[in-house]
Design goal:
This protein has about 625 residues and is of the alpha/beta class. It has 22 helices and twelve strands. A hairpin with an 8-residue loop joins strand 11 and strand 12.
């Protein structure tokens, strides 16, 4: 099949400049494949930006069919065998979302300013800002003519949230037709990018999980990512990064291809939902401090590269824009949110896991909504579940986990590979297979039986193999069960550890009020500061890596452990010095917690550390 680069610029709908950001200071990050798959339709009309995953184009097609039926729109299936079907399915769904959001926004704008109306909800949920004050002033005006005039002005100031999308760059399976490989444009990541690029959206694409050179280079072929008449591109780029160095390297690579990063979205390495990229023990506070100090330098250096490339291409670059820095992962209180905005001078924050308890916003079926609301610390696990061999947060009493354990008990470990988005292993086969599949686990366990491993090492390695779960299918369960698309799906939930601090099933308005400090939904009186909690998770992760280092099969490098400890210790020194700014009146407790974790690290890995064999944990969690 021939490449399709010559036709990729075809569009059928007019596009607009990027939407102005609303007054909200938070966004809702991508969560799994199904939890936020239609979140923009629920929150964009209120000015709240959110992110959907482009991994599962089969789920995306199911959702398009569902919403076409719900809203009385014509639906024509884009089948699995359709040429360039993955990109076409994504484009069609995103265009539908845009159309539906615009329709809902128009209804909101024309609704009456009366209690509980849509436009009233819009303004009441805003943070304390000039627009909110203008609304409050309008309410106090008694002159009817003046009141109506200001109401009309307020209607024009209603701005929707952005319908943003996410590509996890590591998920870039090459496409094949029979035994023949297709052109690289048909790989999973490039097809997803093309699907977004050809949509009528004016929003942002979030690249997460590290650099994918062919994906980034491919983005430069689409005009929507290029500046328009000295204005921002129609579609902008957000990089989700774990540290400043990653931002610098990826930003430079993109700038050399004429692509500008409009936002750097910093995420905690471990205090987040889904995959946890432990990042050598670098802690969030020092990372944010480095961005605070070096942001302007980063912008200058990258813009020099970018402007030169634009000039060589004969294109006009826009004036140096304001680069946005946001942060997400483990934020739990309005006070923490405000510290991030004020002290670290970020432009916004991301709130994910708490929104899993907001049925208005995310897709969680009733069974798992109840489990999430009752979750305790032992119910949330940083596991080996991901076939990508990256630590992955799960609710370990989910239907998916129960099914996985039942298959092991019945002597039939592994899953049927229904979608294949995470296939990567060619250890036993010519074509890649998934670590969670029946096929791989049978072959790997057979290999382990013949290996000359100690009983403890064999147990540890077997547990590592058996822990893998079919997350590319099961993460869609929250949506497919909730909407009756696949009522028997075995849902997995990739909540972050922050879920144990919330138990109330809340409304959107209540959660927004919690974020802005108007009420509190926190139900765990013993919750630690978000920076302390991240450090605690890092210590637990470090403890597990030390245990794994006792088994040669895991090949844990002692130099890596030493660097991990060094980075945590340097972070502790930073937190000790900044306790007053980061913990306010709770600094004494902050310092006590910090010292306890420092002492634990020293016991775990003293200067004269030597490997000592330890028994396997037997839990499947890290």
């Amino acid at each position: 099949m021939e490449a399709i680069s010559e036709t990729m610029q075809d569009v059928s709908q007019p596009k607009l400049r990027p939407l102005m950001r609303s007054s909200h200071t938070f966004h809702i990050p991508v969560m799994g494949t199904g939890f936020t798959i239609d979140t923009p339709l629920k929150v964009a009309k209120y000015g709240i930006s959110s992110v959907i995953s482009l991994v599962d184009d089969l789920l995306i097609e199911q959702m398009r069919k569902y919403y076409c039926k719900k809203y009385g729109k014509p639906y024509h299936e884009i089948g699995k065998r359709e040429k360039d079907g993955r990109a076409l399915r994504i484009t069609a769904y995103l265009n539908l979302l845009k159309e539906l959001v615009e329709s809902e926004l128009q209804k909101l704008k024309t609704s009456a300013f009366e209690p509980e109306s849509e436009i009233t909800r819009y303004f009441e949920m805003l943070p304390e800002c000039a627009l909110k004050q203008k609304y409050l002033n309008m309410l106090s005006i008694s002159d009817l003519e003046m009141k109506l005039k200001i109401q009309e002005e307020l209607r024009t100031l209603v701005v929707p949230g952005s319908i943003d999308v996410n590509i996890m760059t590591k998920l870039d399976r090459n496409a094949i037709h029979g035994e023949e490989p297709l052109a690289q444009e048909f790989s999973d990541a490039l097809s997803a990018l093309r699907g977004y690029a050809k949509s009528s959206l004016s929003s942002s694409i979030v690249f997460s999980a590290g650099m994918n050179q062919r994906l980034y280079s491919y983005a430069a072929q689409f005009n929507d990512f290029m500046p328009q008449d000295q204005e921002l591109p129609i579609k902008t780029i957000i990089l989700k990064v774990s540290d400043f160095r990653s931002a610098e390297i990826q930003g430079k690579f993109l700038a050399k291809r004429g692509l500008w990063v409009s936002e750097y979205r910093i995420e905690s390495g471990v205090n987040c939902g889904g995959h946890a990229f432990a990042n050598k023990g670098f802690l969030l506070g020092p990372i944010l401090e480095e961005f605070k100090r070096k942001k302007e330098e980063l912008v200058r250096n990258l813009y020099q590269i970018y402007a030169k490339v634009m000039s060589l291409k004969g294109l006009k670059s826009f004036f140096v824009p304001k680069v946005i820095v946001t942060v997400q992962g483990g934020i739990g209180t309005a006070e923490e949110d405000q510290i991030l905005l004020d002290y670290f001078q970020v432009n916004g924050t991301g709130w994910g896991t708490p929104f899993l308890l907001v049925p208005e916003v995310t897709n969680v079926d009733e069974e798992h909504l109840k489990l999430l609301s009752q979750a305790k610390e032992q119910d949330v696990c940083l596991s080996d579940s991901s076939p990508l061999n990256v630590p992955f947060w799960i609710l370990n009493n989910s239907k998916s986990e129960k099914a996985r354990k039942e298959r092991i008990h019945e002597g039939k470990p592994g899953s049927a590979c229904a979608k294949g988005f995470l296939v990567s292993n060619t250890e036993f086969t010519k074509n890649p297979i998934c670590h969670a599949s029946h096929a791989y686990q049978k072959l790997k366990l057979g290999q382990l039986e013949k290996a000359n491993l100690s009983p403890d090492e064999n147990t540890a390695m077997s547990e590592h193999v058996l822990a893998k779960s079919c997350i590319c299918h099961d993460l869609a369960g929250g949506a497919t069960v909730k909407y009756g698309i696949d009522p028997e799906a075995t849902t997995t939930v990739c909540c972050g550890p922050n879920i144990v601090n919330f138990s109330k099933i809340a409304s959107l308005k209540e959660m927004v009020s919690h974020i802005y400090g108007r009420c509190s939904l926190m139900t765990n009186p013993h919750r630690k500061n978000m920076f302390i909690e991240e450090l605690r998770i890092y210590v637990d992760y470090f403890k597990n890596e030390i245990k794994k280092s006792s088994f040669p099969v895991f090949a844990v490098n002692q130099k890596v452990l030493q660097e991990f400890k060094k980075n945590m210790m340097e972070g502790i020194v930073y937190y000790r010095e900044m306790a007053k700014d980061l913990a306010k009146e709770k600094q004494n407790q902050f310092l006590q917690d910090l010292e306890a974790l420092r002492a634990e690290i020293e016991i775990l890995y003293p200067e004269n550390f030597t490997r000592v064999p330890v028994p396997a944990r037997g839990t499947g969690c890290l």
